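User: For my dataset I need records formatted as: sequence, then structure tokens, nothing else. Please produce one.
Assistant:
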Amino acid sequence: MQLPSVQTRFLDLPGSFSLRNGTVLDKVRVAYEQYGTLTPEKDNVILLFHALSGSQHAYGYNPEVPGTGSLWKPENHEGWWNSIIGPGRPLDTDRFCIICANYLGGCYGTTGPASPCPADGLPYGSRFPHVEAADQARLQALLLDSLGIDRAHLVGPSVGGLIALSFACQFPERVRSFISIGSGYRASIEHRLSLFEQILAIELDPDFRGGDYYQGPAPKKGLAFARIIGHKAFVYQEGLEQRARKEVGGQSGLLTWMTPTRSTQSYMLHQGTKFAERFDANAYIRIADMWAEFDIRDHAPDGMFKTALAGFRHAGIPALVFSIDTDCCFRPAEQKDFVEQFKAADIPVEFHAIVSTKGHDSFLLEPELYAEPIRRVLG
């Protein structure tokens, strides 16, 4: 089936945007895409949240996004969730209007570290602040406001599930249903350390220059290394040899003494160097840091999950949670705890444990495992 052509749209906020840490950003731009048609009542909206290194381009074919420079590679041109969005698919464009926005601090059109700072016209670089998931959720609420949309279904895979949860916590009256896929309510200590290692890999690249590298070479080696560290958690490691390319490739400019002798080594080098060509190191650090610091209990003055989601409970929002048995980002035990927290907070929740050999990336690669529950909850 030929993919429909789509274009990224932009919202320029009329005023400033204040972050939870007190920083104020002027002239914030939000890049987003929209699939399907709004009803006259605007009551058929799905707000979709992307993963760590994803973008607003979830469906269709989009060969160009203004403002992304050389980062918008051919691998970005096809939507990252074409397998689940479209006519007759679980996120059915014949029934729903799906909206997906790039995150603040990102590199695919929304204001981020590479954007010009209004004060001097130079890239923000190191001056771009830390951003929390709560900030991302509020910005997406402003996007809905600009489109005249009061309520939406929330669908969040991976990091997107964290922001969707923050949205539901802050704006429960605006949520029709909540679907979390391979996500949770906090980052585990294991994954916080992994994210710290990824940030450190970028920071230690001499080309990083504290984040002010836009007038010179980008820290691509550090970013490639960060992606290699992170990619271990995205795939099922016991099946990595089958997933890796069979041939043993070259060094990709990252190694000097060592020569890859296994397909898994070449596979990881390929994944890292390819990623470093399509993403911005500063943006990666901002979103990874947001993930590492996330804990929904921070929304509650008493630090309790039940208190944080009190509005969620009172609004009667139905929740659907998917866990993946080979997920190393949000492990099954953490997901079971997530569901138990919902139950303890008296929030009705439907739980599905997905059996897969694809690891965290299962939601991208095996849409048939998620389709029926998603259709039912949205229906």
